[in-house]
Amino acid sequence: SLRMKAVLSVVLVLVVISSTIAKYIPKSGKRIPQTLSRGWGDQLIWAQTYEEALYWSRSRNKPLMVLFHLEDCPHSQALKKVFSENNEIQKSLDEDFIVLNLVYETTDKHLSPDGQYVPRILFVDPSMTVRADINGRYSNRMYAYETGDINLLISNIQKAKKLLKAEL
Q1: Which among 4, 21, 40, 112 is most buried, taking Cβ atoms within 10 Å?
Q2: Which residue has the higher pLDDT, 88 or 43?
Q3: Cα(143)–Cα(121) distance, rounded to whole angstroms?
C-alpha cells in the first residue's frame, strides 16, 4: 500500500540519518577530513611518514599504531570499513595514539617481522620499540586482522595503551 511505502521511506531516512550522526567526533569538534586518513578515520590526525609518527610518539609520549594496507586489496577495504565505523577504535586512537597508515613498505624491517602482507597492524611504543608481542589470531600472518577480528583489535589497542601506562 501507499501508506506502507511512506512509512518505510521515513524509516529508511531515519536509519541513514542516525548512522551518520553516530560517527565518532572528537571532543574538540569536527576536524577537516584528512586525505592522509585514506578513509581509515577522517577525524583522526594521521602522521604523514613513519619518521614523523615516531617523532610525535616520542615527543607526546603516546604509542604509535602503524597500519599497512593497499587501496585495491579487498581485505584492506573490508577492514577499513569496520575500522572507520567503529567508534571505540576511533575514540581510543584519537585520544591515546599516534596513527599512521601506509600503502608502501618502510625500510624498517621491524615493521614486517613475519612478512609484508596487508592489511597488517603493528604497535610501536614511545621508546621506538616495535611491540611484536601484540598480535592477531593468525599464526601465518601474526599482525593481520579480518573484519571479524575487530574485538581482538580493540583489546590489542587497549593492551598497547596499558603497556605504556605500566612502563612509565
Answers
A1: 40
A2: 88
A3: 5
